[in-house]
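Q: What changes when magnesium ion is included in the input?
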Amino acid sequence: MDCTGFPLRAERGGAAKGMAIVIDLRAAGYSYGGSAGALSGIDLSLPAGSFHFLTGPSGAGKTTLLKLCYGELKPSEGQVALFGKDSRMLSRDGLALVRQRIGVVHQDCRFLDHLTLAENLALPLLVAGRDPARETESLSQLMSWVGLSHRATAYPPALSGGERQRAALARAVIMDPDVIIADEPTGNVDWEMSQRLLTLLGELNRLGKTVLLATHDLALIRAAKPLVQARVLRLADGRVQAAGTEL
Amino acid sequence: MTRLRPLLDALRQRLADLAELALGDRASDRVVPPTGHTVWLTVLSAAAMAFLAVFALALTQATGRLADAWAEDLAQSMTIRLAAPAAEADAQQAAVLAILAETPGVASARALTPAEQAALLEPWLGPDLPLDRLPLPRLIDLVGGEDLDVEGLRLRLAGEVPGAVLDDHTDWRAPLVAAADRLRMLGWLALVLIAGVMGAVVSLAAQAALAANAEVIRVLRLIGARDFYVARAFTRRVTLRALAGAAGGTVLGMIAVTLLPSEPATGGFLTYLGFSGAGWLAPILVPLFAGLAAFLATRRAALRALARFE
Ligand SMILES: Nc1ncnc2c1ncn2[C@@H]1O[C@H](COP(=O)(O)OP(=O)(O)O)[C@@H](O)[C@H]1O
Ligand SMILES: [Mg+2]
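A: The predicted holo structure follows.
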């Protein structure tokens, strides 16, 4: 695997740097409309530059909580503030701009299957009105960072699970976001690959990016201990309990 | 001035958005996958509707010209019917011609000869009729200019030659002009219907394309695309297709209109069905209008579809 350091080191003044809390949930809750609420009374503050694991059994609401954190869902109770702005007060364009600052690795990756891997990675630039043709350098560096240079012209359905996850991470960081949210990024990959993904996320965190990583895999969290300084949040019965730095 | 600033900024943004929509870029076009059958639905329906619209336009223009022509020709030519006892007929006819001779605005006046009258009646009454024994009115053909005072002439004739009746053909011209006007209304109605069907079909095609690409829309929104960007990806494509289809249909329609039989022998109305002069510019508006309709219909459909995704 051809690996290099994370390429997008352009140090920006960083709105996130001056801001203590980038994502802030106050008594937030979400219900899918069924009988029992999926989440309720969630208090969660992510300081800029922090690394958090979100853990809990399958069905605990990890994905739901992450969706609140990047505005795919709006809280049905309480408040969610993204970069200091109430997500329910954001206009649709405002939400789009917030998302350009939050890179998301979705549980199911979500690529456009009719575009090549390189085109998929460039997509966030394109929709933000930037010209990917002018940023081929950083694009190819990014692909080499996740070890996918040789797969640039492949279509997503042809990628392996590990390749998809690394590609999803590359797409999540192409905009040099302040926050990276990853939902079970190691779900479909072997142990070695999950270590590699953790290393990449740790590298991003050391560059000052806020990371929120959901996983039900406690072994992964234990393995991360030497790599990153992370706090662990446990989601159970629809509520968040801080589990501190140890499990 | 300060209050104008945001307005101007919004306007500038709108204009920039429109320019971007028109120019676009190939990379953005690739964002939405091509969807087979809706392409042809849009192109073919736009072509068919444009083809029909060209005919409807030709109809409205033709009826307009026809009504004008009838109004003009017939206003100029009038007839005076003179019913008088045989003994006085010649004297009264002379009196009428004398009046006409001194009436301003009468371009020409001429009494029909008995032979001409016979020729007029022959189709109805047969060739062997002893016309000289029938108490036929004398007929005087007159052609009036613009400055002819028809009512004044009518009054003077009534006063001086009571047997003379001036017929300016209003009675049978009115229904013809009314019929032409009604045809023109039908032409406009057809244009409105065509526009409506076109909008509906494009709307349906756009909705089908949007529904087929729900996942694409979701992904684009999640990676930070503004609604405008997503809507543009769809509207641009559908608009260009409608524009192309309508352009093709318009060209075919104009060729068809040009190829219509045009010899006068084929009869009044067909002779007029076509475009003349500045009228040729009207069909050029058809593709532009189709493009605009497609743009508005798709944008509406796209923004509605987008509302379902956060
Ligand atoms: N779109 C949905 N509609 C209805 N219920 C849902 C939906 N998504 C998730 N849920 C329910 O909400 C709960 C939390 O789901 P989720 O957030 O996906 O948990 P996790 O990611 O921890 O496995 C589960 O009970 C799940 O069945
Ligand atoms: Mg989940």
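Observations recorded in class: The mean pLDDT of chain B is 82.
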